[in-house]
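okkk here we go again. third time trying to get the flavin-adenine dinucleotide bound version out, last two times i messed up the smiles copy paste (missing a bracket lol). double checked this time i swear
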Amino acid sequence: MSRETADIIIIGGGLIGMSTAYELVRRKAGQVVVLEKASGVASGSTGSSSACLRIRYSHVETMTMALYGQHTYRDWASYTGLSSPRAAMEQVGVLWMLGEDKVAADTERNRMHSIGAAADTWNREQLLDRFPALSTCGIPVDYVGGANHTCGESDVFLFEHEGGYCTDPAGANQDLLEACRREGVDVRFRTQVGDIRTQGGRIVGVTLADGSTVDSPQVVNAAGPWCNGLNRKAGLEHGWELRPTRIQVMLRATVEPIPGGLPMVADAAGGIYFRPESNGQQILVGSIRMEDEKEVIADPDSYKTSIDEEAKLRLLHGLHHRVPSLEHRGGVTGLAGMYTMNQQDVHPILGPTHIDGFFVSNGYSGHGFKLGPAVGNLLAQIMTDSMIEGDLAVRHDFLAVDRDSLSVREKSVLA
Ligand SMILES: Cc1cc2nc3c(=O)[nH]c(=O)nc-3n(C[C@H](O)[C@H](O)[C@H](O)COP(=O)(O)OP(=O)(O)OC[C@H]3O[C@@H](n4cnc5c(N)ncnc54)[C@H](O)[C@@H]3O)c2cc1C
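finally!!
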């Protein structure tokens, strides 16, 4: 080991760990060391993220964090200080087709306006004027019974103008690595933390899988789906049930350009979300159904990473229902990634713990990519007890480990 002590150790070099390291070094928090067991970035949840950037959430704090993330990804080159970052934001907008009534959609729009985000409710004509390729059907597709489907029109939709997606989530992770190293963060790959050492109720350091040690008074667990084992090793009992969960995504090649293009869409009738991918040469489709966030992964180091045939067909069917003119040819592939579902409220736990010097940033569910810049910023504020220009203004205990469970619209990716 080149260094056996550090001011702060971060376990995990995914988007959350690397965002936190970057925010710490931006405020000169001392020697920050990131320990990552894989040989490069984005080997966990981050590598298979859909990287959708939207702000609709049950709580205004989550919305504020998501908006902060959007602004950060939009200004990624200036945030990272890289002249040619790999990642960029595509601001295609986010269309909510949830079958809600006008009062509900207007209420959501007003909540977005209240935090300074641009949003509109649209009727059918306005939607088709902007995105002519989309069907406006609001009748749920019956995947289970297989009943014949007859479309019936909806007339209320909500559009987030500033949302979209990040073109390259793994690239964003790599950009942060480059920015961190430039600022002096010591990032070590192929370095697995095997144990977290405490003494008298406070952190003293970590022991690596090869038996060597790094001492530090502060350790952050940012180990994504591997977080539970490390929390146990630190002796942390927090009462939250954080389950590594298998999540499937389909990719459909497009042969002809879609007239008018596509935004990111959340589609309740089909139970799907989708967005353009690969400069519009593909469409990425995932699920918004609660039942598709239930497959627990026993061992995050070993699970099926290809898509199931049933999921592929269902997602494809939902896409064709929403984009009826989509040609019936074009390759279909897919993948399964994993994220850590917080079973109680589908929000992360972030901040200090009852073990002095031990911090957690776990349980991101389907939100960690968009919230990454904000939670890195928030945790750095908490750990250094300082604020710098441009910092996020969200109360520090919103995601605290000892909070009560938040009440959310539904316990799913739409929380
Ligand atoms: C299919 C899919 C779609 C998604 N879509 C979206 C989306 O549209 N929008 C959104 O906001 N979020 C989305 N997410 C969620 C988001 O990607 C995650 O919440 C986020 O990437 C979590 O980042 P992380 O750094 O916490 O975890 P990870 O990326 O998993 O990083 C954790 C790292 O810790 C390392 N590690 C673990 N144990 C140890 C150890 N003992 N020692 C050293 N290193 C260790 C791992 O190797 C890993 O690299 C999606 C996720 C998936 C899987």
